[in-house]
Fold:
Amino acid sequence: MKAEKITLLTGCVLIVLLAVLIVWQADVLGVSAAKLEQDARENQDIENEWEVAQDINDDMCAMLFYDEEKDECAYSIYLSKEGISYGYFFRQGGFDPYMAESVKGVVFEERGIALLSMNEDKVCRIVTDDNGAEKVIQVDPAEPFVILLPIDCGDIVMYDDQNNVVTMYDTFTGA
Structure:
């Protein structure tokens, strides 16, 4: 009787361990929204002293890290997965010269558009035009920024503090 209970208990423990291993390998457990910045800093060796500009929604999180002098920067983009999963999963990151010099738009099919910039162009206003419904987003021209927009936001026009149009460099990454 006692041997049967030990065998049954051992079998249950093995089944639980196997289930945990399967869930871990299936990559359904991502990073919670509260731990995204910490995860990006650890996995990309980003210094704790660096500032961060970030935006997050249900589909993605984009972060732009920069030093006090705003000379160096690094970015991280996390996406949520469709279906059965929890949290956000690292998609891409590193250094991109377009973010340091201008505005980079990273387009994720069906997920949205991430605008990232150290704001050397002094962008102060972003205007989207979705079928005539104009939306204006104010930006501090003296600070780096990250803005997430829906994929169907329409045309995107950015203006600097002198009301000149700022050109965006965009990349399509799929998702």
